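Reviewers of the previous submission asked for a worked example of the structure-prediction workflow described in the proposal, so we include one complete record here. The input consisted solely of the amino acid sequence. No template or homolog information was supplied to the procedure at any stage.
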Amino acid sequence: MTAAALLAASPALLITISVVLGLVIGSFLNVVIYRVPVMLERQWREQCAELAQATPHPYPSPTRGEGEEQKKAFNLVEPRSTCPSCKTPIKAWHNIPVFSYLFLKGRCASCNARISARYPLVEILTALLSAAVAWKFGFGWPALAALVLTWFLIALTFIDIDHQLLPDSLTFLLLWIGLTLSLWGMTPISVDLRASVIGAIAGYVSLWSVYHLFKLITGKEGMGYGDFKLFAALGAWLGWKMLLPIIMIAAAVGALVGIIMLSTQKQSRATPIAFGPFLAAAGWLMLMFGQELVERYLGFFNLGQ
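From that input alone, the workflow returned the following structure tokens.
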């Protein structure tokens, strides 16, 4: 029996492997969540420096240390992960997902500084959602595609929570992957190219219209352009039929969270709340259960036929 046949015949083994894979991917997502915004900030600084050199307006130049730091390679591969406190490179055996955190009791092995519990939580969340995808879709291309979408949504969620930012480098990549998969009939819930393209267009245009209407009425910005792009990407992956339930779930949960924050944390109505996490969560729920919900909803209109 081949490995593929074994995984197809044994759901328990597939789910177990998905958990292990999810832990490893979750560790990498922690890198993505931290480094992508830093990489973007560096790019913006470089662009500002180039603009400053091209214009006669005086701008303060970076200090020598900042300039040297800016020249060092910083991407998803380099440099090695370090302790946030003492900057000591983390050894490979101190970087095993979840287990190293528990073994070291949540502290750096070099300086004993406390390490955020968010790192193992992201790893555990990724493992659990990956296991759920494996349980839902079984072995095959739909499961692999659903895993990729899940991992993207986790990374985008935490980046938006931390920085209220949905990077184009992730949302556009997610959008094009969804369109490409629909072209080859490989999306997780069998969305054809037409439904995918319409979903991408409708997802972007709908939130773009709401944004400008809200701004016209109130003079304020209700959301960011990254939200439009994420909604477009979800439309490309899940098709246009899923857009309405996604936005309804995201808006309802977002409003509930906003009310809770206003009542418990004494924040004002002007306090911005990232909308991307609600879109991502609603999109994942529709990935997992959307087809059944849409079919049941449409079935109400056929009861009398």
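The chain has a mean pLDDT of 86. We consider this example representative of the routine output the project will generate in years two and three.
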